[in-house]
Amino acid sequence: MADKKKKKLPPEAQNYQAFQQDREVKRPVLLNCLKAFLVGGFICFIGQLISTFYVYYFNFTEQTAGNPTTATLIFITMLLTGFGIYDRIGQFAGAGSAVPVTGFGNAVISSAIEYKTEGFILGVGSNMLKLAGPVIVYGVFSAFVIALIKTLLIKWGVI
Amino acid sequence: MLQGHQTWVFENKPTIISTGVVGGPFEAKGSIPEDFDILHEDMWLKQDSFEKAQQMLMEESCQVALKKSSIEKEQVQFFISGDLINQITPTSFTAKTIGIPYLGIFSACATSAESLALSAYLINSGGADYILSGTSSHNATAEKQFRYPTEYGGQKPPTSQWTVTGAGCALVAKEGSGPVVTSATIGKIVDMGITDPFNMGGAMAAAAVNTIETHFKDRNIDPSYYDLIVTGDLGHIGREVSLDLLKQRGLSIREDQYVDCGLTIYREGQPVLAGASGPACSAVVTYGHFLNKLKRGEIKRMLLVATGSLHSPLSIQQKDPIPCIAHAVSIESGSDAT
């Protein structure tokens, strides 16, 4: 795709882009991966601790502890987002803090905080899922497709 | 007046008689806090919204510029200004508050140079005696409009830049003492097909090179005429790209002669990645830092080349390349200019 686009550009622009790219600071991909792995893993580790805590001290099983664990993680994210710490973690960790449920929480909470100045209905209400909305849309849609495939396979006696 | 293809030369010496420079908390921790007139501790400036805070910054910078001169508000004919926010409301609301006849302009981060060029032109041709020209930006309003919510934890690439919270304003007059605006080159749109809004320095460098080259050609001078060539907000990448490109085109510009406002305002270690940006970047650094240098006699002639990328969040989503512009204004110390 990118190559196709490039061909349409006049040679002057192509030369400039190459010239510019030579001087552009690249994303440190390997280092970013390592940081994401460590921070993402650490968040999951905390999640595991919380989950174990619920199983041992409350009336939860390993299957049912998932929901309160997620809620607790999102609550912690809310505090970290509100106090302006989560965006700094995000700049350091990248995908490591974006992929776990805390990243989803941060996307919703940061939007809710940001648009408070436009009121609760048209501001917070309509913009809260601005960043997280696509995740829900495509999450629900892919779940639907997978469920459809599974149902059909069961019906045909494949599984 | 018109010299060459797109350059104005101002023979009647429009003078910057005073300036007002206001900044936010992040700028206070930067490397040039002493060049600000007012520094705020609070991003909100005790206002209800960031947009109102930005308006407040602009209002204060106008008030400071007026207060530092002996000019009354009623004597000023025009207020020429603009900013980044939709329909330039922070600027228009400022114009309502100060009540001076108003021309709203937009050149994104090149607004500072555009307003100064237009003001100097009007003064030079006798269209006004006093004009307030300036611009403002606010980190949070720009992030909200162009990128993500302030507290969103997205990772920015090393090419991205930090929008300055601040406002800079110059009071340009027909006569008086102070630095003189001697010429201005109006830039044209340069589009090199770059679509990445997180690398504006790299995109804008081409426009800067185009305008700088044209300026020297139109005025028939060479780079050694200026003590400093000050670019607006190219950042690390844009500065390197443009300097290398200028050298390639045969303009001999020294490394220490070519400075960038976006690399001057903040200290090493502040998390700004490739440098600062925003309309206020070139305005506060020029009207504060570099005009002070001119007044102290450390430099005699400077060329401000403010660069702007004229995209919108919508045009980026529709995959349009970023159109860039650069306007150049030369400022010389009063006694030296003939």
From TrEMBL, chain A:
The lineage of its organism: Bacteria, Bacillati, Bacillota, Bacilli, Bacillales. InterPro entries: MFS_trans_sf (IPR036259), Spore_V_AC (IPR014203), SpoVA (IPR005562). The chain crosses the membrane at residues 36-57, 69-86, 93-115, 135-153. It comes from Oceanobacillus jordanicus. Pfam families: SpoVAC_SpoVAEB. The keyword Magnesium does not apply. The keyword Coiled coil does not apply. Keywords: Membrane, Transmembrane, Transmembrane helix. The gene is spoVAC. This is Stage V sporulation protein AC. It comes from the Bacteria.
From TrEMBL, chain B:
Gene3D superfamilies: Stage V sporulation protein AD (3.40.47.40). It comes from Oceanobacillus jordanicus. This is Stage V sporulation protein AD. It comes from the Bacteria. The gene is spoVAD. GO terms for molecular function: acyltransferase activity.
